[in-house]
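Support request, priority: normal
Reporter: lab tech (M.K.)
Component: structure prediction queue

Hi team, I submitted a job for Glutathione S-transferase from Bordetella genomosp. 5 yesterday, and the status page still shows it as pending. I've pasted the exact input below so you can check whether something in the sequence is tripping the parser. The sequence length should be 240 residues. Please let me know if I need to resubmit or if it's stuck on your end.
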Amino acid sequence: MTYDLWYWDGIPGRGEFVRLALEAAGIPYRDRAREDDGKNHDGDSASLVEDLQRDRPHPPFAPPYLVADGMTIGQAANILLYLGEKHGLAPADLEGRLWVNQIQLTIADMVAEVHDVHHPIAAGMYYEDQKDEALRRAEDFRANRMPKFLGYFEKLIQPDGWLTAGRWTYADLSLFFLIDGLRFAFPRRMLTIAHKYPRLMALHQRVSTLPELQDYFKSDRRLPFGDGIFRHYEELDPRE
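Reply from support: The job had stalled in the queue. We restarted it manually and it finished. Here are the results:
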């Protein structure tokens, strides 16, 4: 079976958490909004907007969502919980699956805070219209929130280098993408504090060299950062 993944075209965003799991596990999928179906033009994701308006028993609030086994599953962490159990990307026991899901939800918490750095007042306003507030939010995020989250994740990594002993899970892949995003959005701050989290940085390196992901990393299926959740503004990441 081939899954349908729906997410905005042109940015990795929250859809990347799902893509990494699908790619690493070799699960067939279609990145629907990126397909040339005659509806999308220059990354406008018109087909996604149309699909979101379909009547469904359980409609998603927003992408990403996955169409699988006759279901529409929304929210990245929820999608990964499903894929983790069905495709062995999480521990086999219930406690282990819930633990990996808990880590994923905590990653989602940090991602939301990253977004709110450059949009602290309203998501519908331009960054330039809330720049003063963003400067204040970024200062606290760099000084307090980044160390708090990264310090927590650092403590979770097992002696073998993964979040759960034995092998990687989808949460390990998600931590990799989180670190990638932070390095893009806050390169100066990450350069300053990365040495405090050696196990986390080692996990990032291990995921970057996973044989299962090398084809994806070299392909155009992997989108570059831009005006998505992880954004780089010089003024929000000053020299320290």
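The two ends are 50 Å apart (CA to CA). The first helix runs from residue 15 to 24. Let us know if anything else looks off. Ticket resolved.
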